[in-house]
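Sequence in, structure out. Go.
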Amino acid sequence: MSAGTFNGPNGRIQVAPGSKFYPGTIFMGFDLAAWLDEQLREEALQCAPHERSGHERRQLADRREP
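Output:
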């Protein structure tokens, strides 16, 4: 893949190509993998929510719970 830069909860984050992040590993003061998973879940809930069934929306919402 390629290098990436984005805004995380603690400021700007730059990652090198080939970087791997696993849930439970702290990177720049927070669990980057878990945070990215949460961002994707939130984005999925916002993208075409009318196309999902109530059951699918509940499943996605349940995954946001800690």
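Check: DSSP finds two helices and four strands in the chain. The radius of gyration is 14 Å.
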